[in-house]
Amino acid sequence: MHLVVVHYHYRPGGVRRVVELGLHALLSHRPGAWHSVTLAGGEAPETAWWEALRAQHPEVHWQLAVDPALGYTAESRLTSVERRRRLRRFWSELFRPFPDGSAVVWLHNPGLGRNLFLVRELLQAGARRGFRIIAHHHDWWFEHRWQRWAELRRHGARSLAQVAGVVFATHPAVRHAVINRRDASVLGRYLGRQVGWLPNLVQPVRSTPETRVQTARQWLRNHPLIRGRPVWIVPCRLLRRKNLAEALLLTRWLLPEGCLLTTGGPSSEEEIPYARALTEAARRHQWPVALGALAEGGPDSPDVLALMRVSEAVLLTSIQEGFGLPYLEAAAVGRPLIARRLPAVVPDLRSMGFTFPQMYDDVRIPAGCLDWAAERRRLQRGFDRWRRGLPGALRRHPALQPWWEREPGHVAFSSLTLEGQLEVLRLPAEESRAACAALNPWLEEWRQRAGRGQLVVTPWPATAQRWMSPAAYARRFLRLLRRRLDPPPADAARKVQEAMLEKTLAVALRHPLLWAPSP
Predict the structure, then answer these.
(1) Which of 173, 259, 376, 445 has the fewest CB atoms in 10 Å of its CB?
(2) What SUPFAM superfamilies does this protein's entry cite (predicted)?
(3) How many CB atoms lie within 10 A of CB 123?
């Protein structure tokens, strides 16, 4: 059999890590079953990463196939006609050596909607040749990424139904893999056995080589913003959905002498305004935070897991995650975790046996901690701009009832605009903590634990092996691949998208950080 992995790019990040770990699991599970592995994408990965990937399984024939037509449509100057022509030629040439029915295509993140041409042409080419296709969804274009709709329209999408037909393809060659049970239940309601839950592969770190630990410690000692402070780390890129101002607020409240560190930079142009505004505010007010500390890379930079291991604690303040890798990475390296309780993620992890001693739903802020009249105007302007960008059929959805029209006594910090969040951060930390203590009853206990170095570590349960070991991952992947499928109803793709949109809009108003790229 031949395995063809497809992604828009192989930049550092969560999807690339899934590819790396997943390939190792699949190739190790049945040695000799896979004759070749091809990585196809819009840009080539770093040479060092590609060589390390190949070195893990030298018995397999490896191939790299790159064409810009596979990348994000918004980052390309190709016309629609040129893109379609290049994609058809690309798949025809790539698939030509494989006998019919002999290849499996592992397509990553088609639901992100960054290149519907890629998905459509691949599905058609693969189906013609009898190849089975795993459409592995990590994110959704409509999951608080509504700017995608304008992008989809610019590149030929005529309706929501047309997009649904590509993203939720019902062709019998296609299987859909999703990374949390909530999405699996919604898709499964309409697509049946075509859908499988494939939780990400994570393993406990039994030991970290001393050289990597020493490199990470030395790097922290030399960092000009840290200067010997204890470090709390958010292992993430500078993205709006990571809600990083909340991580800074918690650090200032719970460990005033500490420094917050985040690892990556922004992942796309639309995230740059948020990253720039947050970075500039931190510099201006001299807040103890090193944002995007590993973004530049370099030969002396530590790896993220080693940096997590030498940090005091891990924070995860995200508004939205599909799987929530940092929940498990903190347990894997044996560091305490302070995290938001995300309803799409935590139930799955608890079912695997994980416990999270320092978890919260929201950080509540009295409305008096900021100029609420100005914030309400910002919320209304942002909402109006965001609603205009929605597909026309959704602009008058009954879920879109502004909550800020009444005068609240208190509000979730994650429900503020970035300007509102920065206004709260400008208050002296002791003053804002005292004002918010009664609304956040866990605050004082965690502050005392942090001050004594007694935050609790999430243990790695033995039961997790059943779900996230390499062998379990490979078995789930192959079971989904081998399923015999009954054709779903003709309108299944449209119905599953409607159900997913309903779920998304139900919480759409809570988080203005996600409404638009600009702060």
Answers:
(1) 445
(2) UDP-Glycosyltransferase/glycogen phosphorylase
(3) 23
CATH tag, 2-138+170-201+469-488: 3.40.50.2000
> Which tens digits make up the pLDDT trace of 135-167?
999 999 988 777 788 889 988 888 999 999 999
* Amino acid at site 196: G
Burial grade of 392 (CB within 10 A; 0-12, 13-18, 19 or more): exposed
**All CATH 3.40.50.2000 domain ranges in the chain, comma separated:** 2-138+170-201+469-488
Query: Is 130:80 a contact under the CB 8 Å cutoff?
Result: no
Cβ distance 85 to 111 under 8 Å? no
Instruction: Identify each DSSP E strand in 149-189 by its residue range.
Output: 174-178
Is residue 268 within 8 Å of residue 151, measured between CB atoms? no
H/E segment holding residue 38: strand 36-41
pLDDT digit string, tens, across residues 33-59: 999 999 999 999 999 999 999 999 999
- 436 CB burial (10 A radius; 0-12, 13-18, 19+): buried
**Contact by Cβ (8 Å): 20, 55:** no
Beta strands in 131-249 (DSSP E): 132-137, 174-178, 195-197, 231-234
Burial class of residue 17, CB neighbours in 10 A (0-12, 13-18, 19+): middle
Give residue-wise pLDDT tens across range 314-373. 999 999 888 888 999 999 999 999 999 998 899 999 999 999 999 999 999 999 999 999
